[in-house]
Specification:
Layout (H helix, E strand, L loop, with lengths): L22 H10 L6 H10 L2 E2 L2 E2 L14 H14 L13 H17 L1 H4 L4
Helix pairs in contact: 1-2, 3-4
Length: about 120
């Protein structure tokens, strides 16, 4: 049987930027915690995490996708990457309502507590 899948390339987007990306590191982290990225999520993170002279090229990003398609997973993975891969000091989670932001925070805490390699990072 043919596996049904949506479009990977976005219908509308700003021009993609060439160059080095840290998206592959985030994809590997997602795979390591058993929550691999979908192809469209990899595409978004690859573009979102382009770097030039050790700085992110894009300072802000917008992703619009239908409900239940993995936008929150991108946000959680970006936040975990900020903590564990990029050594960022400030991580911000936002949502359209408070309960969803708290859910994302708790999901990240649960993920960290499940994997020794994440817990031991801070020890």
């Amino acid at each position: 049987p043919v596996k049904l899948m949506g479009h990977i390339q976005p219908r509308l987007h700003t021009p993609f930027i060439g160059g080095k990306t840290l998206g592959k590191q985030v994809a590997q982290l997602a795979k390591d915690i058993g929550e691999p990225l979908l192809p469209w999520q990899k595409l978004v993170l690859d573009d979102m995490l382009k770097v030039r002279r050790d700085r992110f090229v894009k300072r802000s990003n917008l992703v619009i996708a239908p409900r239940q398609n993995g936008k929150s997973h991108i946000g959680r993975m970006r936040a975990l990457a900020g903590l564990f891969l990029f050594e960022e000091k400030n991580i911000l989670l936002m949502s359209s309502n408070r309960s969803m932001a708290i859910t994302s925070f708790r999901d990240m805490v649960d993920t960290i507590e499940r994997f020794d390699f994440l817990i031991n990072y801070f020890i």
